[in-house]
Amino acid sequence: MSSIYTLIKQPHITEKVLLMKEDRNQVVFKVAVEANKVELKKAIEKIFGVTVEKIQTVNVKGKKKRVGIREGKRPDWKKAIVTLKEGDSIEYFEGA
């Protein structure tokens, strides 16, 4: 098991995620590829002090990109969609 601070890499912020946060009380994080749901639940509850109801994980394949004649691929990554208990929230963006 990795450290809880290496499992969660960063919040994934898009317009769709902001709507999910308002409507369904869900937040999305980019997480380590080897992380599982049980480890992620413990890490999020300990770091942010919230109660997690459900976690969905998605393995995202990296896109193929080309610059001139050279072709490459962005890395694969994993995201976790976390449903929080009613009344709980994670404030990672509102301070600015």
TrEMBL record:
GO terms for biological process: translation. Keywords: Ribonucleoprotein, Ribosomal protein, RNA-binding, rRNA-binding. It comes from the Bacteria. GO terms for molecular function: rRNA binding; structural constituent of ribosome. PROSITE patterns: RIBOSOMAL_L23. GO terms for cellular component: ribonucleoprotein complex; ribosome. The keyword rRNA-binding applies. InterPro entries: Nucleotide-bd_a/b_plait_sf (IPR012677), Ribosomal_uL23-like (IPR013025), Ribosomal_uL23/eL15/eS24_sf (IPR012678), Ribosomal_uL23_CS (IPR001014). The keyword Ribosomal protein applies. Belongs to the universal ribosomal protein uL23 family. One of the early assembly proteins it binds 23S rRNA. One of the proteins that surrounds the polypeptide exit tunnel on the outside of the ribosome. Forms the main docking site for trigger factor binding to the ribosome. Part of the 50S ribosomal subunit. Contacts protein L29, and trigger factor when it is bound to the ribosome. This is Large ribosomal subunit protein uL23. The gene is rplW.
